[in-house]
Amino acid sequence: MSAVISFPTKTDEIISYNPATGEEIGRAANASAEEVKEAVERARQSFQNWCETSFKERAKFIMEAREVILAEMNEIAQLISTESGKPIVEALSMEIAPVLDLMQYFARNAQKILKPEKINIGQLKFLGRSSKIIYQPLGVIAIISPWNYPFSIPLGEVVMALIAGNTVVLKPSELTPLVGLKISEIFAKVDLPENVLQVITGDGQTGAALVESAPDKIMFTGSVATGKKIASEAAKNLTPVVLELGGKDPMIVFEDADLEAASSAAIWGAFCNSGQSCSSVERLYVEESIAEKFTKLIVEKTRKLNQNLGSDATTDIGAMISENQLKTVEKHVADFKRSGAKILTGGRRNENYQGTFFQPTVIADAKNEMRGMREETFGPTLPIAVFKDEKEAIELANDSDFGLTASVWTKNLRKGKRVAAKILAGTVCVNEVLYTHGIGQTPWGGFKQSGYGRTHGKLGLMELVAPQHIHVNRYTVLPNAWWFGYSENALETFRGFARYFSSGSLFQTVKLTPQMLKRVKELRKK
Q: What is the C-alpha separation between 339 and 203, in angstroms, rounded?
């Protein structure tokens, strides 16, 4: 059976363009609201059988899909690069390799992570009671994924949803629909049962229809503005949501840091994927005593970067996804200039190419009140600000509406951990930057306007199940002391419960035994 859903041919199609050249590379259907509704209903029907499959069966499909990816790795990397504009090297290193690791991890460990858990219910266990938590799949998971990591983000969420026993309706970005359809093809090749995974392509209206169709949970990665709209609409059906809404991530470099390593990390963290990562370094804070030396290193290394078509293996920085995204970067750079910051290198569109290329840009004398330090730029810019001491560095880093990731650079690991714990972000690295989304075993998500909920890791898997409490009474031969009928004797028993039983102490609870026996005897007579 095929996992691929083919919608009727429509005149209203999505056209996919190569952002590096502007050339059309393919088309996809623009699914209507009715088609979305039908897809969700099919997923709901398929859930009835899929949720009954074992972890071993689900893992088999995931590991077979993993083998398909390995066999077609170069083809998939080329498609990612062509449709998103990123270097083919990054398609492999930041999309394919990390999600392959995630697939094997959850295929092998999900059953253990979601195993039933016994609960210690205190003194009640001596009355023949026991409790445990089991984890039930939710049903239909709607995934609305972004264009910046069109393979790794949706595929990772698909795998986690499937292994937990859910069915999935995936709506990829209208800018990268072909990569989304490729995910569907991969699972079709391993004969995933029909309608367990459906990929529906379309524009924003298609995404809105998916939200309105009342799936059992929504996983969204994208802008704050769209995330708020989704949360508002989902609330009408009490549909739970996980929102990953981007960041304005700070990097703090202290004077005792390894400056060579930190400078290389800064430019990679700021410029990989043309700065179009929610965990990109978008605010660089450098201790005053090393600011001049460190900034010089940053500029020197930035000027050596190779900007070119993503298909070239030596390309460091490729094209941006769209003209609209490039214009946002232009506006932020222009505002930096007006506000008194200095453009040290870059600062404009790369006219050597026809597509949407923006030069890697280093900016000095940045201040937190500047627009480019407050709004998410999502482009290849690296604004640098200076701080005097640890306290100011923490204050500057936390002076943001976002809180996704951050990094601290120092050779004093005790200091690094201390500062990291004071930064309001979902992930804080010490002497590392950006790449933790690639660690599928760890949670991903943020604070404040960066959204809520988690993907990846145990916490991410828990987002895709409902904990169910099972409570058992093994001793039904004895009446419960708290049942009807009430009496003076019952009143005295409940005073004993409050005084002794609720203490949590077995020694204290023993004092209640005579009164409990008296109460049980009373109930048996009635």
A: 37
CATH number of the domain to which 149 belongs: 3.40.605.10
Q: Is 351 part of the annotated catalytic residue set?
A: no
Quick one: 432 and 349 in the same domain? yes
* Token pair for 118: 């016994």
pLDDT in tens, 359-413: 999 999 999 999 999 999 999 999 999 999 999 999 999 999 999 999 999 999 9
Contacts of 151 (CB under 8 A, 6+ apart): 76, 80, 91, 95, 96, 99, 179, 182, 183
As a whole-number percent, the residues of the chain with pLDDT over 90 amount to 96
Distance, C-alpha 181 to centroid of its chain: 21
Catalytic residue among 35, 272, 278, 376: 278
For the four alpha carbons of 175, 162, 454 and 211, in that order, the dihedral sign comes to positive
Evaluate the CA torsion angle 34, 40, 43, 48 in order and state its sign.
negative
The first and second tokens of residue 441, run together, are 């075993």
Whole-number Å distance between alpha carbons of 233 and 242: 13
- Give residue 491's domain range: 478-525
Residues 501 and 422 in one domain: no
Q: Considering 35, 83, 90, 244, which one is annotated as catalytic?
A: 244
Cα 142 to Cα 217: distance, rounded to the nearest angstrom: 6
Distance of alpha carbon 11 from alpha carbon 1, whole angstroms: 28
- Does residue 11 form part of some domain? no
- 193 is written with which tokens? 């049962």
Identify any residues that bridge with 136 across adjacent strands, giving them in sequence order.
466
3-state secondary structure of 349: strand
Mean pLDDT, residues 334-344: 98
Say which amino acid occupies 462: M
Summarised one tens digit per residue, pLDDT across range 192-224 is 999 999 999 999 999 999 999 999 999 999 999
Active-site residue 272, yes or no? no
d(CA 427, CA 416): 14
